[in-house]
Amino acid sequence: MPENRIVLNRILDTTLREGEQTPGVYFRPDEKCVIAEMLYHVLGEKGLIEVGQPYSPKYRESVEAVVKYFREKGYGAEKLLSHCRTLKEDVDIAHQCETGGVVVFMAPSDKHLQAKFDGKITFEKALQMIGETIEYAKRDLGFKMVQYTAEDATSTPVERLIEVSRVAREAGVDVVRVPDTKGQASPESYREILRRLTSSVNVAFDVHCHNDRGLAIANSIAGLQGGATGVHVSVMGIGERVGIADLATLADNLETLYGVKTGVNFREIPRLYSYVAAASGVAVPPNFPILGRFARIHKAGIHQKAVLKDPSTYETIDWSR
Hints:
The chain has 11 helices and 8 strands. The protein has helices spanning 29-43, 57-73, 88-97, 110-117, 123-140, 158-171, 187-200, 216-225, 247-258, 269-280, 301-309, and strands at residues 10-13, 47-52, 80-85, 101-105, 145-149, 175-180, 204-209, 230-233. Helix 8 links the parallel strand 7 (204-209) and strand 8.
């Protein structure tokens, strides 16, 4: 692959899972059905939708509601993914909910293993659990899409990420996710992590970038340049703490600046964002890129004069899409 060439095969929206981890946000089952349907039409053929964590009784009802709604609408459940811990009992619940795919997450970093499991699970034990759970989901339960998330990947030595990715691949995983869980990576370091992984392990990789330092968009693009073929987004970038990469901003930048055909239906995005803002109680900030109320307002007189004659003097975004 030529250096920095982007190949995009998947856009996974996780508004209904990651987005619901935003402080104070909870979507009712009927709201999740509406949002999921909007996402289905916005994302197009490359789109996948993470619908929640059914192993939690708080969220199982809404996952089942979305699956049922999609089947009634004739969409099927192939694009819907459940999010689970790396436990066979969690995967069983996802299978009972009949989502098309399942994601299992487990951090391979010593810090997470120590903090979450009091040191009772070693890296070697984690590798065993990851491999067995993926194989169970793929080969025993027959999930068509099985993904593994190496949580806290950017705090984990690349050699260890390579090892866990190989274990996941041998177990039958379809996609390995490489999250910048703490939003701590620079674009250069993140690109290099993905370059190392994609050159070492023959499996598809996704990037999932948190925005703690404001670099979620830049890191997502860098990860794709490093060889990842899938990227994660949410509406308005909502999610844990300050969230992840925003759907509209990332899709526009990929299309405009890098010539990537995302398949995103931009005309439906304003309606989607308005609904999610109302359902979540999180307003679109006025200075938000592309969709914010201020995005097409020019205050300085010299700006106004120029824009009236030629909008391209101060605007580069194609508003006609």
